[in-house]
């Protein structure tokens, strides 16, 4: 603890209080060092080594990063991951619409819970269910489409459709979560503000544009941040439903990273990949915080 | 909106319907919504062709110790950050919040190497031990709560001769039952549904938690859709029930996470 020296200047009572406090916060800090900071540093170090768990790690300098530069699969996984981000605005718009409709509507709590059920269902159960729904011959989706006279694609087996199919499933899974956040945001908007806007002649659209939307921007910002972080590390459904296929069209970087580390035991290479993915995640989050000042409105 | 809710629930309806059908019905064209005679036996079969109950037990054995120990450690730290004065308090709290920014992708490989060196692979330890140290999110959440309580509480307790520990254990922690319940519900849902970590650390089928057992259906019975849907239904019902019972806590927790961010 680097804070030790100033304690000597404290009185005995304050010193005792500080000692208790350090004791109380000790466990999370040990955890932070062992399972947070330590692994982050170890990961950085390992990315300069070749390590297959059997022999000793071998220093190869920037070798892993150079290999990543020419690794077409890695590039494709980055592209796939970026593509999956497209589902975020769609899901958010839908959940905002539902929240606006549900807000102050009778029976809203029940409907809200129904929308949230997919969010508490495990990724494994959801994956099994949607693999069945997307079954080209017997699945429910293609059967509904055929009744409308449309021949549905092979969804998860079609390189063109696999990403949209997973995005649709992701929207279904995540809708309830954003909905709850938006409903909480809507409920914190003072009714007096809306009334004032009405008196000034604002209609439904005007009230949304000038009152509701600005006051919801912190919620929107939070949903964007958490969804981007989650989507950039999408793994379970890829493992369960497609194993990255067909033709690697659905492999996310997280999936490729898992495969590299735990199927091929290329730990150093996986760490290098993790650092690029991690930098993307932190960079994306930081960039959003940087532009947040321009559009997120915080009430005093 | 009612229509929207029905659309949201349709996949679950299809899951349940398939779970109750015979194999012939599952592959009938056009598909049937209602099974001719509900095959309730599919549910029994789903729990016997794979070690379903063993999976449930393993999930509980993995989740509960980490959840209880972690909540305790988090609450204690949250109390210190909210109520005690000590040099470096804000800086240390900020450091802890940095953990929330560390992507799991980055720590995944070195943690595996670490646990492998400790010979913990294929045991529950990599899944339990890190959770025991408490989590930054829980600390943040409980600190917010403790800060809303009047300071007189602590002072009165101190004047009565209670130590800081007793003040925490006897006065403040009992008052925090609502936020602790919120975190417990979230922790349990997350533990029940956890997939990636057990996939990485466990290899013996008898140690698999429920989600890995459920994933086995796909490789072992990949054409038996009614069996798979029965398994998925059974694995989802407990958390759905928990959510419906405890949804007030869930809604409050989610609302708070969004507003304070």
What does this structure look like?
The complex is a heterodimer of chains A (300) and B (261). With 300 residues, chain A is mostly helical. In chain A, 72% of the residues lie in helices and 1% in strands. Chain A contains 14 helices and two strands, in the order H-H-E-E-H-H-H-H-H-H-H-H-H-H-H-H. A two-stranded antiparallel sheet of chain A has the order 1-2. In chain A, helix 5 packs parallel to helix 9, helix 7 packs parallel to helix 12 and helix 13 runs antiparallel to helix 14. Chain A is flat and about 75 Å long. Chain A starts with a helix and ends in a 5-residue tail after the last helix. Helices cover 75% and strands 0% of the residues of chain B. Chain B is an all-alpha fold. Chain B has 15 helices and no strands. The mean pLDDT of chain B is 90. The longest helix of chain B is centred in the N-terminal third of the chain and has 32 residues. Classes of the chains: A mainly alpha (300), B mainly alpha (261). Chains A and B meet through helix 2, helix 5, helix 6, helix 7 and helix 8 of A and helix 1, helix 4, helix 5, helix 6 and helix 10 of B.
What keyword list fits this structure?
heterodimer; A: 300 residues; mainly alpha; 14 helices; 2 strands; B: 261 residues; 15 helices; 0% strand; elongated
Strand count of chain B = 0
Distance from first to last alpha carbon of chain A: 36 Å
Question: SSE order of chain B in H/E notation?
Answer: HHHHHHHHHHHHHHH
Mean pLDDT across all amino acids of chain A: 90
Which structural class should the secondary elements of chain B be placed in?
A: mainly alpha
Which stretches of chain B are poorly predicted, pLDDT < 50 over at least 5 residues?
A: none
The largest contact between protein chains, plus residue counts on each side, is:
A-B, 100 and 95 residues
The topology string of helices and strands of chain A comes to HHEEHHHHHHHHHHHH
Assembly state: heterodimer
* Separate helix tally of chain A: 14
Largest sheet of chain B: none
- In terms of DSSP E residues, the strand content of chain B is under 5%
Fraction of residues in helix of chain A: over 70%
Radius of gyration from the alpha-carbon trace of chain B, in angstroms: 23 Å
The average pLDDT value of chain B, as a whole number, equals 90
Low-confidence stretches of chain A: none
Backbone CA Rg of chain A: 25 Å
């Amino acid at each position: 603890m680097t804070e030790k020296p100033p304690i000597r200047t404290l009185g005995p009572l304050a010193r005792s209080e500080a000692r208790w406090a350090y004791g109380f916060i000790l466990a999370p800090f040990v955890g932070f060092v062992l399972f947070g900071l330590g692994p982050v540093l170890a990961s950085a170090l390992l990315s300069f080594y070749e390590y297959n768990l059997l022999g000793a790690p071998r220093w190869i300098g920037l070798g892993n990063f150079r290999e990543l530069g020419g690794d077409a699969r890695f590039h494709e996984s980055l592209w796939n991951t970026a593509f999956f981000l497209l589902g975020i605005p769609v899901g958010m718009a839908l959940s905002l619409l539902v929240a606006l409709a549900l807000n102050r509507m009778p029976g809203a709590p029940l409907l809200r819970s129904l929308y949230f059920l997919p969010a508490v269902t495990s990724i494994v159960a959801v994956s099994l269910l949607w693999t069945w729904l997307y079954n080209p011959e017997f699945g429910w989706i293609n059967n509904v489409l055929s009744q409308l006279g449309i021949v549905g694609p092979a969804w998860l087996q079609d390189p063109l459709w696999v990403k949209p199919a997973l995005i649709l499933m992701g929207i279904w899974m995540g809708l309830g979560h954003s909905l709850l956040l938006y409903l909480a945001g809507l409920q914190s908007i003072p009714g007096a503000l809306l009334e004032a806007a009405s008196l000034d002649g604002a209609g439904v659209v005007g009230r949304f544009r000038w009152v509701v939307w600005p006051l919801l921007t912190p919620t929107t910002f939070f949903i964007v941040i958490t969804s981007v972080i989650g989507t950039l590390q999408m793994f379970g459904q890829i493992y369960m439903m497609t194993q990255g296929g067909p033709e690697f069209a659905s492999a996310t970087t997280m999936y490729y990273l898992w495969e590299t580390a735990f199927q091929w035991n290329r730990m150093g290479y996986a760490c290098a990949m993790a650092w690029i993915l991690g930098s993307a995640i932190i960079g994306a989050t930081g960039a959003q915080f940087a532009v947040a000042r321009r559009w997120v409105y915080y009430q005093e | 909106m009612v229509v929207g809710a029905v659309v949201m629930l349709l996949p679950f309806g299809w899951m349940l319907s398939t779970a109750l059908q015979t194999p012939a019905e599952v592959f009938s064209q056009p598909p049937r919504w209602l099974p001719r005679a509900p095959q309730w036996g599919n549910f029994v079969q789903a729990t016997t062709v794979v070690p379903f109950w063993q999976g449930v037990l393993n999930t509980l054995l993995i989740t509960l110790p980490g959840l209880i120990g972690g909540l305790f450690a988090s609450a204690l730290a949250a109390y210190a950050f909210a109520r005690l004065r000590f040099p470096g308090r804000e800086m240390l709290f900020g450091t802890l919040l940095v953990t929330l920014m560390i992507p799991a992708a980055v720590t995944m490989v070195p943690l595996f190497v670490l646990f492998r060196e400790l010979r913990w692979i294929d045991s529950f330890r990599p899944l339990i031990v890190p959770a025991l140290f408490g989590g930054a999110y829980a600390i943040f959440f409980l600190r917010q709560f403790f800060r809303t309580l009047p300071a007189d509480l602590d002072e009165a307790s101190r004047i009565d001769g209670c130590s800081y520990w007793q003040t925490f254990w006897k006065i403040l922690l009992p008052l925090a039952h609502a936020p602790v319940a919120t975190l417990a519900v979230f922790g349990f849902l997350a533990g029940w549904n956890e997939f990636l970590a057990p996939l990485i650390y466990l290899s013996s089928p008898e140690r698999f938690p429920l989600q890995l057992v459920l994933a086995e259906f796909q490789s072992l019975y990949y054409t038996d859709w009614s069996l798979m849907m029965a398994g998925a239904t059974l694995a989802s019902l407990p958390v759905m029930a928990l959510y419906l019972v405890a949804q007030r806590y869930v809604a409050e927790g989610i609302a708070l996470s969004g507003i304070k961010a």
